[in-house]
TrEMBL record:
It comes from Corallococcus caeni. Mg(2+) binds at S232, T253. Its EC number is 3.6.-.-. GTP binds at residues 228-233, 247-253, 272-275. (6S)-5-formyl-5,6,7,8-tetrahydrofolate binds at R24, E84, R124, K472. Keywords: Cytoplasm, GTP-binding, Hydrolase, Magnesium, Metal-binding, Nucleotide-binding, Potassium, tRNA processing. Binds 1 potassium ion per subunit. This is tRNA modification GTPase MnmE. Residues 7-124 form the GTP-binding protein TrmE N-terminal domain. HAMAP family: GTPase_MnmE (MF_00379). Residues 127-469 form the MnmE helical domain.
Length: 472
């Protein structure tokens, strides 16, 4: 029996006690198998009608009373005949029902994501929407839910199609001219400008999707800086509970600590790290090594400086973060300092509006006059809301995640290859032959097709659907 003709079954609900548990069957034998469990249902049930009926064991003894739903192919989630048994949410009962369905030789357990995969194979949904299903299930912040929902409703599919159609037309025109020069004469006249327009559309889409991982997994933000700057106190304040140990002894934090928060719907994993200093003790040195590792991995590093830090010192602390963007703040701002030549020297009324210094410093432009870092106090909470806002602005560049923001590394990579091929096509349209131009346009089309699923391999589908849970 080929996989396509197999009827598959799985629990559609989590294997835990709950109000309702659903057993879902999809494939040609779905109705017969379902009626085997629910013999009270008519032989030709009305599709999409909820029948209240008994579910029975092999001997006909009643196991539960629940709802029976029949979706007739192709009007179902998978595009095949689908039967759902909505039973009471007893894991043990559902296992009995599942085992009974599997007694039929035409039925086998569904693989992870197989229902969704069949929906894709039967053309019910394209790949971006299939992936959005998995994203929605995995979403752990409001932003991730909203972005996945937009993906599910076809927002990304729409954008891809808007690029794919003209690209396909251009490719067809070019191939026409190459293969039937007489009939298709002149179809390549505007090729150069069409490539330019398509390339800029591809680049625009690419720019928009770059932050998919931020929404999907949340952003990672680490507090770092010299020992005793007030990092742990600020961390506790940002997290809203006393998670980290605080002490006036420098070198209190040894191991990085993490906490998950949700700010404006965006998931943020916040790290408190071991303070940096020269000549630490042995254990502390291990903590400092870990801080440096972590700094390389996060999306944003928040440098917490004690009041009175000089500009040179600030610049050198900034360099500790390497390539990671830095947002600098002056901590313990409730303490008055009279130090001269410090980073907060030019603090004035205007600098009450947080303006990240990190950019300038990490761009190697620290010689230019830059605004004073925003001031915070973990102790009093002053400036903490403004810091949160600056962090979000730095991660997002302001605004809320766009509908197409929830894009996987896979999508981003395919879009990058699309744009690159179009870049080479643009070059070819100026300096090379029509063959080369058409070849690059073909490559762009192929890369783009990996997003929508018009050109994907079985192997890629296997990998994609493996991240789904069983029953999805
Ligand atoms: N009980 C239950 N709830 C569920 C699902 C399910 O399979 N079963 N879903 C599963 O993930 C989601 C809903 N997704 C669905 C998508 C399409 C169709 C469907 O029957 N589509 C047909 C008919 C459309 C219509 O009549 O408007 C089609 O596309 O042709 C059903 C569910 C979430 N809730
Ligand atoms: N006045 C004032 N004191 C603070 C503030 N934040 C921290 N402190 C004090 O400064 C000392 C060090 O604070 P921590 O939060 O442990 O500093 P840290 O940067 O985590 O230090 P290490 O883990 O040792 O690197 C403690 O005595 C805190 O009470 C603040 O905003 N204002
Ligand atoms: Mg600490």
């Amino acid at each position: 029996m080929t996989p396509e003709s197999a009827t598959i079954v799985a629990l559609a609900t989590a294997p835990a006690a709950g109000a309702v548990g659903i057993l879902r069957v999809s494939g040609p034998a779905a109705l017969e198998v379902g009626r085997g469990l629910a013999p009270g249902v008519p032989a030709a049930p009305t599709p999409r009608h909820a029948y209240l009926t008994s579910f029975v064991d092999a001997a006909g003894a009643v196991l539960d009373e629940g709802l029976f739903l029949y979706f007739q192919a192709p009007r179902s989630f998978t595009g095949e005949d689908v039967v759902e048994l909505h039973a009471h949410g007893s894991p043990r009962l559902l296992r009995l029902l599942l085992a009974r369905a599997l007694e039929d030789a035409r039925v086998r357990p569904a693989l992870p994501g197989e229902f969704t995969r069949r929906a894709f194979l039967h053309g019910r949904i394209d790949l971006t929407r299939a992936e959005a299903v998995a994203d929605l299930v995995a979403a752990d912040s409001e932003a991730a839910v909203r972005a996945a929902a937009a993906g599910l409703s076809g927002a990304l599919a729409e954008r891809i199609r808007a690029l794919e159609l003209p690209l396909r037309e251009l490719h067809a025109d070019l191939e026409g001219v190459l293969n039937f020069p007489d009939e298709a004469e002149g179809a390549d006249a505007e090729a150069g400008s069409r490539v330019v327009a398509l390339r800029s559309a591809a680049e625009a889409l690419r720019a928009e999707v770059g932050r998919g991982r931020l929404v999907r997994q949340g952003a990672r933000v680490a507090l770092y800086g010299p020992v005793n700057a007030g990092k742990s106190t600020l961390f506790n304040r940002l997290v809203g509970e006393a998670r980290a140990l605080v002490d006036d002894e420098p070198g209190t934090t040894r191991d990085a600590l993490e906490a998950r928060v949700e700010w404006d719907g965006l998931g943020v994993t916040l790290y408190d790290t071991a303070g940096l200093r020269e000549a630490p003790g042995r254990v502390e040195a291990l903590g400092i090594a870990r801080t440096k590792e972590l700094l390389a991995a996060v999306d944003l590093a928040v440098l917490v400086l004690p009041p009175g830090t000089s500009r040179d010192e600030a610049a050198s602390w900034t360099r500790e973060a390497g390539a990671t963007p830095v947002l600098t703040v002056t901590g313990k701002c409730d303490v008055l300092t009279a130090a001269r030549g410090s980073v907060e020297d030019d603090t004035n009324a205007a600098s009450a509006v947080p303006s990240p210094l990190g950019d300038a410093a990490s761009d190697g432009m620290s010689a230019l006059p830059s605004p004073a870092p925003p001031r915070v106090s973990g102790l009093t909470g002053e400036g903490v809301d403004a810091l949160r806002t600056s962090v979000l602005a730095r991660l997002w560049g302001g605004g809320t995640p766009s509908a197409v923001a929830l894009v996987s590394e896979r999508h981003a990579d395919a879009l990058r290859r699309t744009a690159e091929a179009l870049g080479r096509a643009e070059e070819a349209s100026r300096v090379s032959t029509l063959e080369v131009l058409s070849g690059e346009v073909g490559l762009a089309l192929e890369a783009l097709g990996e997003v929508s699923g018009t050109s994907v391999s079985e192997a890629l589908l296997d990998t994609l659907f493996q991240r789904f849970c069983i029953g999805k």
